[in-house]
Amino acid sequence: MSAPTLDIENLKLGFKGYTGYTEVLHGISLSVNPGERVALVGESGSGKSVTARIVLGLLQELRAARIEGRVRFEGQDLDSLNRRERHALRGKAMSMIFQDPTSSLNPVFRIGDQFHDVLRRADPRITRDAALGRAASILAEVSVRDAVRVLNAFPFQLSGGLNQRVMIAMALANEPALLIADEPGTALDVTVQAQTLHLMRKLVEDHHTAVLFISHNLGVVREFADQIYVIYKGRIVEQGPTEAVFDGPRHPYTRALMAAVPRLTGGGIPDIDENSPDFGAPLETHEREGRQ
């Protein structure tokens, strides 16, 4: 059996403050196999995005951050790589759709130049004209009708929704082995969200891409993901196949998340005792089925 595309083992993260280190991730473990769509689900501030940024190596050089545990990509321990080797992976073998595209895109370069830089990671000899042609084709797949105008624009000249589509197109451009999608539909209408999910599914089917899908939208997660990890206050509190978790959520936080989904019939959100000593602990988890 081949190694998981992404394997996170006992990941801990702390930030240095005036009174010492404050731990925000408490032993996160998860894996994503080739061709698998895994969702990391939780409320804002639960630790989803910082987990993704550690995978990409974006927090390792912060003096205030202390990271423990193991992150492996296709069997290789990422801690064994130097800065240049990590940088070479980003945008080619692994890519990420960031939640805030306007701040993630470089404001002083045109969109076309940024596409050219991304595509050169996979093909250093690609010409600018060829890169722009490829970029226009990908942008059309995420419903950007005036690709020429967009490629000639700076990020601040585009709406949040257009920047989001640009970010999605860039992440998909080199057909990475691992795609991390951090709330990819935040600034998009439901039609474009559906097209984005379709593109990610196609990437999985055609290239056996592994997808780590970060979201708090349980409706989208149920439609898209094969496996679910529920994160609460920096801990994985429940995990399992999507249908098993939805059909029989065991942890009170998982049940609360599902009860918070708007329904036409109304209903309330169950009370959660956040001070309960065992609430944040992964006491009840589904066995991961279908893995060998």
N-to-C CA distance: 8 Å
Q: Helix tally?
A: 11
Beta-strand segment tally:
10
CATH architecture name of the domain at 6-99 and 176-285: 3-Layer(aba) Sandwich
What's the CATH H-level superfamily name of the domain at 6-99 and 176-285?
P-loop containing nucleotide triphosphate hydrolases
What share of residues are in beta strands? 15-25%
CATH class of the domain at 6-99 and 176-285: Alpha Beta
Write down the secondary-structure element order.
Answer: EEEHEEHEHHHHHEHEHEEHH
Radius of gyration: 19 Å
Derived structural class: alpha/beta
Report the CATH topology name of the domain at 6-99 and 176-285. Rossmann fold
Are there runs of 5+ residues with pLDDT below 50, and where? Answer: 275-281, 283-292
Q: What is the average of the pLDDT values?
A: 85
Share of residues in helices:
25-40%
What's the story with the biggest beta sheet? 6 strands, mixed
User: Major sheet: order of its strands?
Assistant: 6-7-8-3-9-10
Q: Name the shape in a single word.
A: globular
